[in-house]
Write a structure and sequence with these properties.
Mean pLDDT: 79
Low-confidence stretches: 1-34
Shape: elongated
Structural class: alpha+beta
Distance between the termini: 79 Å
CATH topology of the largest domain: Jelly Rolls
Strand content: 15-25%
CATH superfamily of the largest domain: Regulatory protein AraC
Helix content: 40-55%
Number of strands: 10
């Protein structure tokens, strides 16, 4: 436990150093007490605490703030907006405003939970880091280092608002969110994968080779040897386009070649390239090539006739 507390303190000190550096660089003038909270956009709200749920306990609510809900022991079920999740030891849930939540426990293994209510206001740091975008896709996290994580959450619950400053609250909770996001990435990204550039090259080659087929994200990601979520992020970082947009653009480019190099009718090109109908073909073609297919063919052939 002592080692875990030292690790937590190092994260807080590092966060403070980073913020002070940013403050000097951007000449921000913020209140000393709330400086880190303002930077992260994280503020405490509502009631936070720990509880060993009573026999017969159940929970039903609609949230009006965020709630970090961590299972320290026992087992049960949590339902979020109609979807059931197992709530067992080391499970952590990030509940959001508007969520419809209900929970029950296994009578023979009563739940012990820690919960932190908070609000996100402004969230410049969260938006810039992309952290909440990633966390928004995930409901249940599994904590690997329970001692470290529980020491962080426990510190948040040790005192009331006067004993834990808003600055420390934001730093500790920010660390917990970063930990969860990192843990989720570790579970979904292969530990040993081919180089990023080679993976994307393989995907692009596969797309172009199968452009007439209805390409699913999972299919292309499997070709690249990556999980769909990680593949989507890596593909956009590399090409500047999402996989879906890239496929649509590649299909339009192939249609352009067929318009110029063959006498195929527009409806035939639309059909062989997998467009739903001629209207869909014309709309997507114009989006990427600038003109409808018929006008594009006529202009290109007129240009070639003059040269």
């Amino acid at each position: 436990m002592k080692l875990s507390v030292i690790c937590i303190r190092k994260h807080i000190i590092l966060g403070g150093h980073i913020f002070r550096l940013l403050r000097r660089l951007t000449t921000m003038t913020l209140p000393t007490e709330d400086s880190f909270a303002a930077f992260t956009g994280i503020y405490r709200s509502g009631i936070s605490g720990r509880a060993r749920c009573e026999p017969g306990w159940n929970w039903r609510t609609v949230l009006d703030d965020y709630d970090l809900w961590y299972v320290a022991g026992g087992s049960g079920q949590l339902n979020i907006n109609g979807t059931d999740y197992e709530a067992d030891a080391r499970s952590c849930f990030l509940l959001r405003p508007g969520d419809r939540v209900s929970a029950k426990q296994n009578p023979e293994h009563r739940l012990s939970v820690l919960f932190i209510h908070f609000q996100v206001t402004g969230a410049w740091w969260l938006q810039k880091s992309g952290l909440f975008t990633t966390l928004a896709d995930v409901r249940k996290f599994v904590v690997a280092d329970a001692e470290l994580f529980e020491s962080c959450i426990g510190r948040l619950l040790e005192g009331n608002e006067t004993e834990t400053s808003s600055e420390e609250f934001a730093a500790l909770l920010g660390w917990a969110l970063i930990y969860l996001e990192k843990r989720d990435r570790e579970l979904h990204e292969p530990a040993a994968r081919p180089s990023s550039a080679r993976s994307i090259r393989q995907a692009i080659h596969y797309i172009r080779e199968h452009i007439a087929s209805p390409l699913a994200l999972e299919e292309v990601a499997e070709c690249a040897g990556l999980s769909p979520r990680y593949f989507s992020r890596l593909f956009k970082d590399t090409t500047g386009l999402s996989p879906r947009t890239f496929i649509a653009k590649a299909r339009a480019e192939r249609a352009a070649r067929l318009l110029l190099e063959s006498d195929m009718e527009l409806n035939v090109i639309a059909d062989v390239l997998g467009y739903h109908d001629i209207y869909h073909f014309s709309k997507q073609f114009k989006q990427f090539m600038g003109d409808p297919p018929s006008k594009y063919r006529a202009q290109q052939r007129e240009y070639e006739a003059h040269y």
